[in-house]
Amino acid sequence: MVNSFEFKAQIKQGMIEIPPEYQQNIQEGSDVKVIIFSEETAKPRLMDQLAEQPISVKGWSKPTRDEIHERKS
């Protein structure tokens, strides 16, 4: 017999807690199938964050185009 339950939960320290109202229907040590649908939006990558909000460093200025493409021998 297959029982299915749907509930929302937060992951805490890598664990998903089964709500008490469903615990009585699941035997300790039994095999279960878990499907996770994350409702969180993806966090922007660090490089994307820095491109949008650069960190200012005292005494540093943006290089000119010529400085960027300057070849050093």
Reconstruct the topology from this structure.
Blueprint lengths: L10 E2 L2 E2 L3 H4 L22 H7 L12 H5 L4
Antiparallel strand pairs: 1-2
What does this structure look like?
By secondary structure, this protein is mainly α. 22% of the residues lie in helices and 5% in strands. It is built from 3 helices and 2 strands. It has helices at residues 20-23, 46-52, 65-69, and strands at residues 11-12, 15-16. A two-stranded antiparallel ribbon has the order 1-2. Strand 1 and strand 2 form a beta hairpin. The radius of gyration is 26 Å and the shape is rod-shaped. It starts with 10 loop residues before the first strand and ends with a helix.
Q: Which class of secondary structure composition applies to the elements?
A: mainly alpha
Over all CA atoms, what is the radius of gyration?
26 Å
Distance between the termini: 75 Å
Low-confidence stretches: none
Tally of helical runs:
3
Q: Considering DSSP H and I runs of 4 or more, what fraction of the residues is helical? A: 10-25%
**Percent of residues in beta strands:** 5-15%
H/E series: EEHHH
Strand elements, count? 2
User: Widest sheet: strand order?
Assistant: 1-2
- Write down the overall geometry: rod-shaped
Largest sheet: 2 strands, antiparallel
Average pLDDT number: 87
Organism: Spirulina subsalsa FACHB-351
Protein name: SpoVT-AbrB domain-containing protein
